[in-house]
């Protein structure tokens, strides 16, 4: 078992656990994590826990060690196999227990892995993750004799997904890119129930991710999907990350549709039923999001980046919909409020089948918004550097929003953002402006400011 002096606490992230498999996250760490979370479950009077995994090369061994740790506490582990993270969430909402652990590193590069946790039907994150680390440091565990069982819920999950789909009068051609991730376990079966023509790419789970990295938010990684949309004259392209909780979308012209533009499209039918409702987005979303939600009669709410923070803010504001720039979309109007890219894809298809989908996308005002800008930074120093960033801005007399990192607004309404990543060793930046020239100036200013943090 991992000892307190060898456990790498840098893997304890804001929303979950992430590390490099075999280095910062080893099998003995997975066993200790299983014992720690298992102890918390036993103390919460739980007797069963769902466990699932993605298709990464290290997931089987980490899953085995995690399960050993959980059963050593006296829990019954219910294994639902290789599947999307949202399917694990679905199990905790509808199955034999409201607790679960997913072995996944989501969109991270293939050498990473990690764990996402559910307790009492809610995500276990933030201070709870740190407390789990404290329990490992103290070796404060219970002991017992647990059991293992398996359960197949794939068709139940697909049936629930299909409740999102309303067949329209305009059948579509859609291209689905599973990216060799867990959506490949669902999409080939799912599309059999849909109207129109559906072309499925990279539909075999492969932890090497041979076609492209498992990131649905980066259009540079999705050129194969874009080309397939154009070659097949498709109405849209749908991309999924490694564990199927992030959605990427291409329109019929092969243009990538960022979530700040897509959220209002999702929100319009929701707000027609729930006028004045709050719609949640993260700080990386552009000003189009807020202006469009207001135009539709909703209340735009901005929160920290991270799927856990989006979901938490949705609960606080009773929001029926929330989303993150990176592609997490959460519906709570007729679903469970968690991020499910497959469910979101079906909601989008339902909207598109009503007709004039490209025109609806074109109607959303455009600004110049940068892709994510990455400044490599060790996990051990990235938060200290963000405190340094605040000090520098205060010293320079520059006002900023500190909802998540620092966001500096210009008189024109343009802005740049710098924040510590929740999942990788980096500071992440973004910029928005009304013109390409102003955007270029902002990117230069942001880059120069990030370099000052090295001084």
* Terminal Cα span: 41 Å
Tell me the name of the CATH homologous superfamily of the largest domain.
Alpha-D-Glucose-1,6-Bisphosphate, subunit A, domain 3
Average residue pLDDT? 96
The dominant shape is globular
Roughly what fraction of the amino acids lie in strands?
15-25%
CATH fold descriptor of the largest domain: Alpha-D-Glucose-1,6-Bisphosphate, Chain A, domain 3
- How many DSSP helices? 14
Largest sheet: 7 strands, mixed
Task: Please give the share of residues in helix.
Answer: 25-40%
* CATH second-level architecture of the largest domain: 3-Layer(aba) Sandwich
Number of strands: 20
- Whole-number radius of gyration? 22 Å
Q: What low-confidence regions span 5 or more consecutive residues with pLDDT below 50?
A: none
Question: What assembly state would you assign to the polypeptide chains in this entry?
Answer: single chain
Condensed summary:
The protein has helices at residues 27-43, 59-71, 85-94, 127-138, 154-161, 187-190, 223-231, 259-273, 287-295, 307-317, 341-352, 357-362, 379-395, 436-452, and strands at 17-20, 48-53, 76-82, 100-103, 112-119, 122-123, 147-150, 173-177, 197-201, 236-240, 247-250, 278-282, 299-303, 321-323, 329-331, 368-369, 373-376, 406-409, 415-420, 426-433. With 455 residues, it is of the alpha/beta class.
């Amino acid at each position: 078992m991992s000892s307190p002096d060898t456990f790498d606490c840098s893997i304890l992230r804001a929303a979950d656990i992430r590390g490099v498999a075999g280095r910062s996250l080893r099998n003995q760490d997975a066993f200790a994590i299983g014992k720690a979370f298992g102890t918390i479950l036993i103390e919460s009077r739980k007797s069963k826990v769902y466990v699932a995994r993605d298709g990464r090369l290290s997931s089987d061994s980490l899953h085995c060690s995690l399960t050993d740790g959980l059963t050593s506490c006296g829990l019954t582990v219910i294994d639902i196999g290789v599947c999307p993270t949202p399917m694990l969430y679905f199990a905790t909402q509808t199955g034999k227990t409201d607790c679960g652990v997913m072995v996944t590193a989501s969109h991270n590069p293939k050498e990473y892995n990690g764990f996402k946790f559910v307790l009492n039907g809610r995500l276990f994150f933030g201070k709870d993750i740190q407390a789990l680390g404290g329990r490992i440091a103290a070796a404060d565990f219970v002991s017992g004799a647990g059991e293992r069982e398996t359960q197949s819920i794939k068709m139940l999950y697909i049936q629930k997904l299909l409740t999102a789909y309303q067949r329209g009068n305009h059948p579509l051609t859609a291209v689905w890119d599973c990216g060799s991730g867990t959506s490949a376990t669902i999409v080939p079966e799912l599309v059999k129930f849909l109207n129109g023509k559906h072309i499925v790419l990279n539909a075999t789970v492969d932890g090497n991710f041979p076609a492209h990295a498992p990131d649905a938010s980066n259009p540079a990684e999705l050129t194969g999907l874009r080309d397939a949309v154009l070659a097949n004259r498709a109405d849209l392209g749908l991309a999924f990350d490694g564990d199927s909780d992030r959605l990427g979308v291409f329109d019929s012209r092969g243009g990538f549709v960022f979530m700040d533009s897509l959220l209002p499209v999702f929100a319009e039918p929701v707000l027609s039923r729930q006028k004045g409702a709050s719609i949640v987005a993260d700080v990386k979303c552009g000003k189009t999001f807020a202006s469009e939600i207001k135009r539709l009669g909703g209340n735009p709410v901005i929160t920290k980046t991270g799927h856990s923070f989006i979901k938490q803010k949705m609960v606080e504001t009773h929001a029926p919909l929330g989303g993150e720039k990176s592609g997490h979309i959460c519906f709570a109007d007729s679903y469970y409020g968690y991020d499910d890219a497959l469910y979101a894809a079906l909601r989008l298809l339902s909207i598109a089948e009503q007709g004039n989908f490209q025109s609806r996308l074109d109607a959303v005002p455009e600004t110049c918004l940068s892709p994510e800008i990455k400044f490599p930074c060790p996990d051990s120093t990235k938060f200290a550097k963000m405190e340094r960033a605040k000090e520098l801005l205060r010293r320079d007399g520059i006002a900023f929003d500190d909802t998540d990192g620092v966001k500096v607004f210009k008189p024109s309404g343009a802005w740049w953002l710098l924040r510590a990543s929740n999942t990788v060793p980096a500071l992440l930046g973004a910029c928005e402006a009304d013109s390409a020239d102003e955007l270029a100036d902002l990117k230069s200013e942001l880059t120069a400011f990030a370099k000052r943090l090295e001084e």
